[in-house]
Write a structure and sequence with these properties.
Elements (H helix, E strand, L loop, with lengths): L4 E4 L3 H8 L6 E9 L2 E5 L10 H4 L11 E5 L4 E5 L25 E5 L5 E8 L3 E7 L5 E4 L7 E2 L14 E6 L6 E7 L11 E2 L5 E2 L5 E4 L7 E7 L4
Antiparallel strand pairs: 1-2, 2-7, 3-6, 4-5, 4-6, 8-16, 9-15, 10-14, 11-12, 11-15, 12-13
Length: about 230
């Protein structure tokens, strides 16, 4: 559930035997399947460089004609894979500077007629983690900071929301994606914070992003988690 694959960076037992030093970091990978057309994706691992050009280098033409869009809160920036014409070592027209940090999400447009599988490698975020979702009715293109799947509230710890906040989950498995919209309503009679309309927590997968819109008079939402790979 945590990762498609997960392995410790170094064997603690072997390290202690050799050097009396061990690492608590965990290195893993996630595979994200992108259907033809638009997909809202996320890289939920910490890499040396979490920019598009570093994570998905197109020097060999692997991502030619792919379009990636990043949202800054008011406008989109975009980049396109073009190994032959870009003139950049990473093969992206706009230098591949779009960031894909844990907690962020981007649009990935697959131009092919078949699925593309993206593999991200890096360190699993641990400790006290905060993802700030913009207030005053603004939209945030977000994901879980931790590479886990499940319910946003029950499994992923999104509890500090405003009544009336919206979550828009975009799913694309056939090339014709669509949104499922959820409205936060913790006073709707269930007796626990986490009631949404329609009933049930919004669900997201590993490597999947979503839109979060705060209620028009609501403040920013601090999505806080304390996480360890041992949980």
């Amino acid at each position: 559930m945590l990762l498609t694959g997960l392995m410790t960076a170094l064997s603690s037992a072997a390290l202690m035997a050799q050097t009396n030093v061990y690492s608590l970091n965990a290195v893993g990978y996630i595979n994200v399947t992108c259907a033809p057309g638009f997909n809202m994706i996320a890289d939920q691992l910490i890499s040396t460089n979490n920019t598009l050009g570093s994570l998905l280098n197109d020097a060999a033409g692997t991502y030619d004609n792919v379009l990636v869009y990043s949202w800054n809160g008011s406008t989109f920036s975009h980049d396109s894979g073009d190994s032959a014409l870009s003139g950049n070592a990473n093969g992206w027209d706009n230098n591949g500077v779009i960031t894909m940090n844990p907690g962020q999400a981007v649009w990935f447009q697959n131009p092919n007629k078949t699925n593309m599988v993206l593999t991200f490698v890096g360190t699993v975020p641990q400790g006290s983690l905060t993802n700030t979702l913009a207030g005053s009715g603004a939209f945030t293109m977000a994901s879980s900071i931790v590479p886990q799947s499940g319910d946003l509230v029950t499994n992923l710890g999104l509890t500090n929301f405003n009544n009336g906040d919206h979550v828009y989950v975009f799913n694309n498995t056939t090339g014709a994606g669509s949104y499922t919209t959820y409205t936060a309503d913790s006073l709707g009679g269930s007796g626990y914070q986490g009631l949404w309309d329609p009933p049930g927590d919004p669900q997201v997968n590993v490597g999947q992003g979503f839109w979060y819109q705060t209620f028009k008079t609501g403040g920013a939402v601090s999505w806080v988690r304390s996480f360890s790979v041992n949980q």
